[in-house]
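User: I've been going back and forth on whether these two constructs are worth ordering. Before I decide, could you fold them both?

Assistant: Sure. I'll take them in the order you sent them. The first construct and its structure tokens:
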Amino acid sequence: MQEKQDRRRNKDREEESPITERTVRINRVSKVVKGGRHLSFSALVVVGDGEGRVGIGMGKASAVPDAITKGSAYAQKNMVNIPLKGDTIAHDVSAKFGGSMVMLKPAPPGTGVIAGESVRAVVELVGVKDIVTKVRRSTNPTNVVKATLKGLQMLRDPEVEISRRREYAQRTALAKNEALSQDPSD
């Protein structure tokens, strides 16, 4: 009876949670053993809240639903924040993971998500509405998803970056002036 109540509570939490999950790839793995073949499944799952948080996870199990559940749990544990600029990204970025290379470019409002299936899963769950992407070299979904996440993590908020660089320039100029004023060669 207690288990039923726990399941109901978990179901209620899942419905309240703004996190969306999308399964990108399910791979059947066959291992030959003494008695025949042993089948297992791996699932690549992307989760996101549509407001700048996204995570990816790989789950492996002997049944597909269990693999998806494991992948989803791992992805939720490893969610990262991505800086967005309205409904798009702030600047161009290219990222490489394994044999895959992904290019992400901001687009004007109304463009939509121009991307392949794997990249689309990540950028839509992050909350990007207008973006142009291109996958070069390998199109292996696992590497493409990881390269996309790596590219999104390389994004910087322009205002924060400008203020950080100004502070650095001021500190170095101040240090240089102090060094010149203390120079004993006068």
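The second construct, handled the same way:
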Amino acid sequence: MAKKNMAEVLVNGKIYTIGGYESTEYIQKVANYLNEMETKLAETDSYRNLSVDEKQLLKNMNLADEYFKASEAKERLEQGAEQKDQEIYSLKHDLIDAKMKEDKLTAEIEELNRKLQEEQRKQTRMSQSALKRKLIKPEYRL
């Protein structure tokens, strides 16, 4: 099991000892975030007029809002990644199909080239044979 870490943090002017399984640096980062949120809210006039409970409720609402927005963004990113994975799979499949067609067409071209060469050799032999016959037979003139 992971080691539990303890960290002293300053939140809203008070020192707290916080324990958790995250690193002490992370615990400090969370405390700093809470302090930044408090500082930002304290800059507004209306926040200063709220009771302690109302201030805490406002901070909780802001945190929940950020959490839900981050969760929605994460979901959109995951859906986008899944869609990209499906597109990649489809493109790979299309690439394999195209390669198979290319191989088939290449084989057909090679076969046609072989037949063409064979026909050219036949033509050459026939031409040579006809030339030989013409040379062998004397011409008859009337």
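Notes on the second construct follow. The first helix runs from residue 24 to 42. The CA atoms of residues 49 and 137 lie 126 Å apart.
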